[in-house]
Design goal:
With 315 residues, the protein is of the alpha/beta class. Helices cover 31% and strands 26% of the residues. Helix 1 packs across helix 9, helix 9 runs antiparallel to helix 10 and helix 10 crosses helix 11. The longest helix is centred in the last third of the chain and has 15 residues. The chain is globular.
Length: 315
């Protein structure tokens, strides 16, 4: 197995509007749609579309429409460890989109209905998948205690620390890499970076604290990464993003994470994986929606020519 993604499944209720509402304001939608989402399912699809062999581990509610979440089978994703949580609703995300920007409110539902602490050790199917995968990916739309359990069983563990929250030092030290955006970086390091150079200083500091590697995405500005190698100084770089016309940024971060996971599982170095993921994210924002906008591995490879070269950074 190449990539195991453990995470959330949501029903996304998406409304497109001319502009995002101000606090207390009501606006009328131009159109609305309902589709499968959640950072977990998004990243599983992104990894599979990018060329990875993917298994998905998740929890859905008793109300789940099997036709909706089993649509993941169309991407070749294994679903043997997707389990139904009795007396629980499937997670729901309410998304408002305008001019390429979005606002999102998530009701986690069954995504927080995982087994008790003692019950996790009885999950032999899940444990088997985690222990044999080249790469295991998780996010924080499931309980942190589950993420911690996952991280101790993975050969290589990637954590997309979203939504933003403080994490234990033990968990951070298992992340290779830890992937954060600007607000999530602030949650784990203490301040929002104002420039790529300042972001690099923060991710380097995390490596010096014991995190094996860190990738910080900076929106249209690109990303920075840093990596700690035993006995050597921390290395890293700034990876600019290509200039594109953004149609819908919803789920673009998940496109980045999924593509990066596939590249790492296939043996890429971190810098090359970040460039590959940058191309995937740039393609994803040029189309509406999430799963349908995620590019194939061939399209990502072709788009790499438009990705600017990275610049090594030191502090």
């Amino acid at each position: 197995m190449t990539v195991v993604v453990v995470g959330s499944v949501n029903v996304d209720v998406v409304s497109e509007v001319e502009r995002l509402p101000a606090p207390g304001e009501t606006v009328l939608a131009l159109r609305s749609r309902t589709n499968l989402g959640g950072k977990g399912s998004n990243q599983a699809v992104a990894a599979a579309r990018a060329g990875g062999r993917v298994e998905f581990v998740a929890r859905v509610g008793a109300d789940a429409d099997p036709g909706l979440w089993k649509s993941l089978l169309e991407y070749g994703i294994g679903l043997t460890a997707v389990r139904e949580v009795p007396d629980s609703r499937t997670g729901t995300a309410y998304i408002t989109v305008a001019g390429g920007e979005n606002q999102i409110v998530v009701d986690p539902g069954a995504n927080f209905g995982w087994e008790s602490e003692s019950g996790l050790d009885g999950l032999t199917v899940e444990a088997g998948l985690l222990e044999t995968a080249q790469v295991v990916v998780a996010q924080l739309e499931i309980p942190v205690r589950v993420v911690d359990w996952i991280s101790t069983r993975a050969r290589r563990f990637i954590l997309n620390a979203a939504p933003a929250m403080r994490l234990s030092e033990d968990l951070l030290r298992r992340c290779d890499p830890l992937i954060v955006n600007e607000s999530e970086l602030a949650a784990v390091s203490g301040s929002v970076p104002e420039t790529p150079e300042k972001a690099f200083a923060q991710v380097r500091a995390l490596c010096l604290r014991g995190v094996p590697s860190v990738v910080a995405t900076l929106g249209a500005a690109g990303s920075v990464w840093a990596q700690s190698v035993a006995g050597s100084p921390v290395i890293g770089a700034y990876q600019p993003a290509p200039h594109v016309d953004t149609v819908d940024s919803t789920g673009a971060g998940d496109a980045f994470v999924g593509a990066l996971a596939t590249a790492l599982a296939e043996g890429a170095e971190l810098g090359g994986a970040v460039a590959f993921a940058t191309a995937a994210g740039a393609l994803a924002v040029q189309s509406p929606g999430t799963h349908a906008s995620y590019p194939t591995g061939d399209r990502i490879a072709a788009a790499l020519a438009a990705v600017p070269r990275s610049s090594p950074l030191t502090s």
